[in-house]
Amino acid sequence: MKISKKDPFYQDKNDVYNEVLKQIQECRQKGGKKLDFYFYNLTKIPREITKLETLTDLNICEIEMSKIPGFIGNITSLKKLIVGSDKYNLILPSKLGNLHNLESLSIYDGISDIPDWVFVLKNLKKLIIHSNTMKTIPSKIHNLKKLKHLEINANEVNKIPDTIGNCPLEHLEITGNFKTIPESLGNLTKLKSLTIFSRALTNLPENIGNLKNLKKLNIDAYNVKILPLSFKKLSYVKDKNICIKKEKASLLKQSLINKKLYILPCFNKLKNMDYQFRWKLLETYTLKELESILRSAPDSLHPTIIDREIFKDVLLERKVRLKKSFKWTEENKKRIINVSDNFLKTWNDGITKSKKMLKTLPVSDINYHVSIILYPDISFDNITNYLNCELELSLNFNYNPLKDEKIEIPRPLHVKRDLSWNIEGLDEIELKDGYICYALHVLFVHNSWALQDIVNIHNIETKIRILY
Question: How many CB atoms are located within 10 Å of the residue 180 CB?
Fold first, then answer.
């Protein structure tokens, strides 16, 4: 039984543990180097993992345990470790300091401070920390003599230590609430990429112009009024996104044009931007420009994660603009309700069709997994391609012709009229007397479709998939 990363939650804890143990055993037999248990929601890690003498990469992110077992520190072959939990305050034992070959460490949530043992990892080249509660970056950071990549994403961090200028960094990214940046930043002459985001920052160090090897520069600091004079020395940096001062979108756009930093609407040009700057830039575009970006998105049946993220950001900004012009006329109310009814009708047609297909299967002891998937279609190019119908607009169930006397198909709330999503789904009291199905909530809230998109759904296709 293979656990799917997309859907591990259907397995109980024993099944998950046994699957993890199985993968550890297979890794040992084959001399494997990587184990990825991301989103397995581990509650226990088998001790057998310490027998993997060839293991170099381990991902145990999104675990459901408060303490990482100390025996992980015995896997001295590890070069890359990813750990984290958004549900527990993690205890990372000092024995992890025995991972003397570790070159990359990522901790995603679950900590309030960087553990002391991190600063004895003499071979560490990459350190990524994401935390909602961490407030300080220890001055010991300079002990990491080989550190080239440092990424700190912690909204509560209020100070950057002077010692950061003693690190051999090539990539530095810090998100926090710090008011100043130490002058020692100018000592990072090997730096190739710099990203700074802080709503409390009021000025940049004068010697920032010393960063002569920069290739990428992102600065988002609303309270910085004036750039240092030495900033002119960075004119050679082509990949540069600067957002300072509290300006309205129209003023910001003109400011960017004046500084020759304004970027014409193009989907691919948004990919390399820091997301905070991307949001501010989207606010400067007109509705026509936003739709131009959407149409320039890669036309793929399987978009990448970053493409989906950017597409959704643009859709959300577009939805905000369009909502202002949407009128709740009687005609639009009828159209919304008709679309909702069509979704339910399509669900029921898919259920009826799947039953007929299952009745044609030979009577045998085979477990079939059945999926009924809906694909809404509108005239606007690309939007449907970026809708994850298989995850959000699907009805899934299992069927065994030998063991199941009847074909029982579950009918969750999104395929029956027990609950209307008129308020929760569309945030509109105007539809209080009508029934709105869950699918419209998925489109409007989860995927940022505008109401204009929903009323223009002219067709809903059904796909039935039977696997074993």
Answer: 15
pLDDT in tens, 126-185: 999 988 889 899 999 999 999 999 999 888 899 999 999 999 999 999 988 899 999 999
Contacts of 147 (CB under 8 A, 6+ apart): 124, 125, 126, 127, 141, 167, 168, 169
pLDDT tens digit string along 278-298?
A: 777 788 788 888 888 888 888
- What pLDDT band is residue 414 in, cutting at 50, 70 and 90? low
- What φ, ψ does residue 22 adopt, rounded to 5°? -60, -45
CATH tag, 8-261:
3.80.10.10
- What dihedral do alpha carbons 116, 119, 123, 129 form, nearest 10°? 80
Query: Which candidate, 387, 361, 368, places its Cα nearest to that of 376?
Result: 387
Rounded to an integer, what distance in angstroms lies between the CA atom of residue 152 and that of residue 208? 19
- Cβ pair 162, 138 in contact under 8 A: no
Entry pTM: 0.56
Q: What residues pair up with 107 in beta bridges, in sequence order?
A: 83, 129
What are the respective helix, strand and coil percentages of the chain, to the nearest 5? 40, 15, 45
What gap in Å lies between CA 159 and CA 9, rounded to an integer? Answer: 39
